[in-house]
Amino acid sequence: MKYTVFNEEVLFTTEAVSRVTGRDVECLKSLAMKNTRQRIRLCAHPAVEDTLHEMIIVLPKGAYVRPHRHLAKSESFHIIEGRLNVLMFGDDGVVRSVLKMDQTGPDETFFYRLSESAYHTVMPQSPWVVFHEATNGPFNREDTVYATWAPDDNDQNSVKAYMEKLAKVSCPAEKGSSEQECVRLSK
Question: Of 2, 34, 57, 110, whose CB neighbour count within 10 A is largest?
Answer without folding.
Answer: 57
